[in-house]
Amino acid sequence: MKPQQSKSTCSYCGVGCGIIVQQDKKGKIKVKGDPDHPVNKGLLCAKGMNLHYVVEDRSDRLLYPQMRRGKGHPLERVDWDTAMSRAAAVFKSIIQKFGPDSVGFYVSGQCLTEEYYLVNKLAKGYLKTNNIDTNSRLCMSSAVMGYIQTLGEDTVPVSYEDIEIADCFLVAGANPAWCHPIIWRRIEKHKELNPGTKIIVVDPRVTQTCDLADLHLQIFPGTDVVLYQAMGRCLIESGDIDLHFIQNHTDGFEAYQNVVMQKSLEKSALICGVSVSDIQLASSYIGESKGFLTLWAMGLNQSADGVNKNLALIDLNLITGHIGKPGSGPLSLTGQPNAMGGREVGGMATLLSAHRKLDNPEHRKEVADFWGIEELPDKPGLTATQMISALEEGTLKAIWIICTNPMVSLPDSKRVEEAMKKARFVVVQDISSKTAGIPFADLVLPAAGWAEKEGTMTNSERRISHLSKILNPPGEALPDAEILIKFANKMGFSGFDFPDAAAVFKEHAALTKGTNIDISALDYGILKERGSVQWPFVSTDQPPSVRLFTDKKFPTPNGRAQIRISGAQNQHEATDPDFPLILTTGRIRDQWHTMTRTGKVSKLMKHIDTPFLEIHPHDAKQRGIAEGDTVVVKGRRGEVRIHAKFSDKIRVGVVFLPMHWGKILENDFARTNNITGNAIDPVSKQPDFKYSVVEVAKFSKP
Ligand code: SF4
């Protein structure tokens, strides 16, 4: 075998780093950062650097399709034809008896765009249900609604190159030093070269991101809206707003001003648990800046108030006119590598292809005509947690889970397990035999992983990158796109005659024509030649789409951005004497999601190898807990048993659990989502992982 070298993209976070994969004569692969890639310029974080270990260790891989003859029967090996025939027969029968909305697909922000496109076309166009949702619902849906309600469309208007231009960063509800490391390296370097650059961090915990901060506002969980509106008030009072931009390019400022000016700064500071002077200082940093970037992630999005938090933050960009110009604008940090690609193809229960709107009959007709079908269903589909409710209620009979691990990642895990038990038919399509859904599955389909299939992904800055196929998948595993095409063919559908991933991409690109995310001029050839491009991409001659809204025209009905005053605030569950502490959850540096990949890499386990509860020594002492003690963290829905780790970097009254671990020992649970609840944002339907009420006690053996 000849040594080979291919370019690809890291499959972990939404930063979207370019990678070079080298394969030696024996077929062993090595990964290094692509020095020519504009995102990472050769750098990789620990997760990216160790990608090849995940690919090489195939000990946990699913190798062939498996099927149960009936509930309670063991899984048995079958061939692909048998597996697909069973899937098609069960789906046909259920749809015939109970209608199209009795089936659903739950997919992943780690699926490639082509896979997302196919499953969306299959569900909406051919099975006639909008029940196709994704774990991106747990990640970005509040940001999506924030963008739509302010800018008119789900559009990140800036690029990473704005980092090197900005002189003020507001990092809210995010720990990019650990979770988006390569973006953070760029910010660190920029501040090193430009020490006057101001960094404001808003987080209830002192994280590694705070090491670089000029100001850390350690707010009480859930008080973000109050804080950003207080900052808005300060900016108005100091005259640091852009009246020309407001008057000519926005609506809603008067209502915004009326509300924020009525709110006392002292009271807001008290609610947030920070000082008035710190709010004023943060506002002065923003007011004095020439380039102001807001960066945020799950701290805002994963909340029962997620959309309001997004609106209040984006408002700061709008009232100061910091949008559509170099170094300025909102930059939501995508958690998953292709959450944005999934949104582009409309791969969610509430979206349509190319940012078309599901409730717009013309948009539905455009897509239906393009697919050559009569019509698309108009009823919004079930979102992630709504699917669980529908399984419980028995209205959703069959669920097909692709590339995600909902028994660990969805809130209120025990409820998810019970719901899965009620399903008539569960399909799990995955790479790993460790996926927690397998015991509940009637059909298990082995999928190809990263480097074993070709496709594209879009990162947080609208950058579409190509991923090469470098290795053959193990056993009988197949690329997800091929599995979906097999199923569509078994169902007798005619619109799935795709010879390869490039053909799927070509059709997706053609469907974007004439929309604001038009990539109709893009194909694999251009992507391979240029490495990556940002959307829109309407011609090979156009300059790069680095920054949007430079003409100050927004895709709203009147072309003006909308300054939105957030209504309801703090819709989280309330503490009480039984549950006096607030639990917040999040990532640790070297782990990814439910650890089915990073958990295999011993180098990544070196950083933190066991789950823990972060608790302030004051709260621990009050409960007679010593550092390292096993404690029971009890919430309204369940509990976890775990070691206590003292930290004065968390507020008194707040505790933290990492999100990654599932069931680790029999009768001993470290699964954080045993505790988290079913509160969702009323607009985005995104679950709240950042605010559950709990009590903590020292564990004593019964
Ligand atoms: Fe991969 Fe994200 Fe790390 Fe880049 S920053 S190497 S995309 S995990």
Automatic annotation (TrEMBL):
<comment type="function">
    <text>Catalytic subunit of the periplasmic nitrate reductase complex NapAB. Receives electrons from NapB and catalyzes the reduction of nitrate to nitrite.</text>
</comment>
<keyword id="KW-0408">Iron</keyword>
<keyword id="KW-0249">Electron transport</keyword>
<keyword id="KW-0534">Nitrate assimilation</keyword>
<keyword id="KW-0411">Iron-sulfur</keyword>
<keyword id="KW-0574">Periplasm</keyword>
<keyword id="KW-0479">Metal-binding</keyword>
<keyword id="KW-0274">FAD</keyword>
<dbReference type="GO" id="GO:0046872">
    <property type="term" value="F:metal ion binding"/>
</dbReference>
<keyword id="KW-0560">Oxidoreductase</keyword>
<keyword id="KW-0004">4Fe-4S</keyword>
<protein>
    <recommendedName>
        <fullName>nitrate reductase (cytochrome)</fullName>
        <ecNumber>1.9.6.1</ecNumber>
    </recommendedName>
</protein>
<keyword id="KW-0285">Flavoprotein</keyword>
<dbReference type="GO" id="GO:0050140">
    <property type="term" value="F:nitrate reductase (cytochrome) activity"/>
</dbReference>
<comment type="similarity">
    <text>Belongs to the prokaryotic molybdopterin-containing oxidoreductase family. NasA/NapA/NarB subfamily.</text>
</comment>
<dbReference type="GO" id="GO:0051539">
    <property type="term" value="F:4 iron, 4 sulfur cluster binding"/>
</dbReference>
<dbReference type="GO" id="GO:0042128">
    <property type="term" value="P:nitrate assimilation"/>
</dbReference>
<dbReference type="GO" id="GO:0045333">
    <property type="term" value="P:cellular respiration"/>
</dbReference>
<keyword id="KW-0500">Molybdenum</keyword>
<keyword id="KW-0813">Transport</keyword>
<dbReference type="GO" id="GO:0043546">
    <property type="term" value="F:molybdopterin cofactor binding"/>
</dbReference>
<keyword id="KW-0732">Signal</keyword>
<feature type="domain" description="4Fe-4S Mo/W bis-MGD-type">
    <location>
        <begin position="3"/>
        <end position="59"/>
    </location>
</feature>
<dbReference type="GO" id="GO:0016020">
    <property type="term" value="C:membrane"/>
</dbReference>
